Every structure is written in C-alpha cells, then in structure tokens.
Amino acid sequence: MLHLYIDLIISRDRIRKKVLHTKYKEGVMSDSKVVASKVKTYIKDKSGMNTSTTVFDALTKIVEREIDKAIVNAQANKRKTVMDRDFM
C-alpha cells in the first residue's frame, strides 16, 4: 500500500504542499484514517510537544483495528449499520 501524508501549509496567502511521509507496500494506495493536522494540533495544545510523521501510520492501524471490531459487533447483532455502541 502507498501511504502518502500531505500537510497543507498556509504561508503568506499561498498554499504549498509538504510531503511528510511516503511508504510503499504491495503497490496499492491506502488512505490515512486520521486527520494529520487535527492530531498534530491536539498533541501540541495538550502537551506542547511535536508530532513525528510515523504517528499517523500507528494511529491509522489502531483506528482500522477498532473499526474491524465494531463491524464484527454489528454483524453479531444482525445489523448492517455500524453504530457508536459497536465501539464499546
């Protein structure tokens, strides 16, 4: 899978793209399940710390695992809709 994380930086009324991290696996493109800018802002506001680009791969894997569990829970309850209670 190809992971490509792009952080948009607004600089003097222009937007430029900065490629943060690219990783190749199996030749298929995969999307991140987390919003990089939101995660970075949360970490910065909460702790004053910076965020490594490798954080987004790890968070995406965690989110995918939790989504997979929620899908199983919804299927076990014979539903075709994943609900908030499926994440508990």
List keywords for this structure.
88 residues; alpha+beta; Histone, subunit A; two-stranded antiparallel ribbon; 2 helices; 24% strand; disordered N terminus
What is the compact description of this entry?
The chain contains two helices and two strands; from the N terminus they run ββαα. With about 90 residues, the chain is an alpha+beta fold.
The number of strands is: 2
Head-to-tail CA distance between termini: 29 Å
Q: Structural class of the helix and strand makeup?
A: alpha+beta
User: What integer is the average pLDDT?
Assistant: 75
Share in β-strands: 15-25%
**Fraction of residues in helix:** 25-40%
| Largest β sheet strand count, sense and barrel closure | 2 strands, antiparallel
Task: List the strand order in the largest sheet.
Answer: 1-2
List segments where confidence is low: pLDDT < 50 over at least 5 consecutive residues: 1-29
Number of helices: 2
The CATH level-2 architecture is identified as: Orthogonal Bundle
Order of helices and strands: EEHH
CATH topology term: Histone, subunit A
Q: What's the CATH class, please?
A: Mainly Alpha
The radius of gyration over CA amounts to 17 Å
Anisotropy-based shape: elongated
In the residues, how many domains can be counted?
A: 1
